[in-house]
What does this fold into?
Amino acid sequence: MNYRAQLVGVFGDPVDENPTGVMEEAAFAAMGLHFRYLTLLVRPQDLTAAMQAVRALNLRGINLTIPHKVAAVACMDTLSEAAAIIGAVNVVVNKDGRLLGDNTDGKGFLSSLADAGIPVADKTLTVLGAGGASRAICVECALAGAKTVRVANRNQERGSALVSLLNQKTEAHAEYLPWNGVLTIPADTDILVNATSVGLAPHTDQRPDIDYQGITGAMAACDVVFNDPNTLFLRAAADRGARTVNGLGMLAQQGALNFAMWTQEEAPLQVMEEVLRREFRLPG
Ligand code: NDP
It folds into this structure.
């Protein structure tokens, strides 16, 4: 008999409303795995000690969310190629006391596009925002063969830094779009992504300040915001005839990748998606 569960979890601040634990624990149960997922409040000043605790407590791994993804890079023994380029870690695997940092946010986004039948290769993306989620999405889409990646961000320094990174480290052509007031969506956009936090609960009555008349039926519109997943941005894009992809697919897909890294088993993706739909009271 083995009474010791394998431990994984998430460090964040705030973290109380993060639904990942419900999704991962349902997946462990479905696969008959003796794992537990802990949702842990870790203050920024305690991150280094918390990462040391991953080793001390023999955790199998850990997720990192706001505000730890960038700071955690310095605590890793090794980084995946994606995490090194993105400069942020959202998942850690503890291999015999050595911490490997990876970033599955962008790969999760790519998988959610693939599920929706939306190809990225040779496409032109317009991405709103240049924070952690945007960096992961832009880098992975560029590595997956996107032709052009345009980044619109209010803060020019952050937007330009991401554009320089994409031009230096990937084959894609990247451009910065200044975002002061209403943003005009370039007409050649194939995939429009809201990678800002605008629309995130409790501010579900807000949407990015863009000219929605510029969205056409030839575009796909994607949102990273998953709480609530039926965002005003996506509703407005659907009204304009665009295909839409909400943030739940990205959340489930990156959770499935993390599950596989920790357990060495393929994740039961359907179970994870069902749990999220239930949590957000969406029809099955
Ligand atoms: P960051 O804080 O790193 O970045 C926030 C971005 O949003 C910045 O570019 C910021 O612009 C922009 N922004 C904020 N408010 C506004 C506004 N009013 N108008 C225009 N731009 C604005 O956050 P993250 O990148 O980590 O997270 C962003 C969102 O992605 C969150 O809602 C998060 O929940 C979601 N997410 C979803 C995941 C999923 O699996 N679906 C995974 C990871 C994140 P500026 O630089 O000008 O301040």
In short: The pocket of NDP is lined by residues 66, 105, 108, 129-134, 153-155, 158, 196-198, 200, 208, 224-226, 247, 250-251, 254 (CB under 6 Å).
